[in-house]
Amino acid sequence: MLVHSAVSWPANSPLLMAKVRSGGVELTGVEVLDLSLAGCMLEWRGWTLREEQRVLISFPTLANLPASVLWSEKDRVGLLFNNPLHEAVYDHLVRGYSLSGG
């Protein structure tokens, strides 16, 4: 089985943006700081998120993915996807946004 490590963006790469929804509130234009098959870290400028809070996150061209908040600190939040990303989806995002292993 191929294992993917988390990836982060080089400074000159296009940004991967996401949309996050929870409790009927939606925030668009959320910057994804790193990504793995299991979850992601976001730069967060929205409402306060609590650990274990359920959210929906969507990436360009992908439907809503259920996730839970693992941690939240100042302007960063870590999400755990309810189901890991399929490797093909992960690879599509990595290729599309020039992510680099980190």
From TrEMBL:
It holds the Pfam family PilZ. It comes from the Bacteria. SUPFAM superfamilies: PilZ domain-like (SSF141371). Residues 18-95 form the PilZ domain. InterPro entries: PilZ_domain. This is PilZ domain-containing protein. One of its GO terms (molecular function) is cyclic-di-GMP binding.
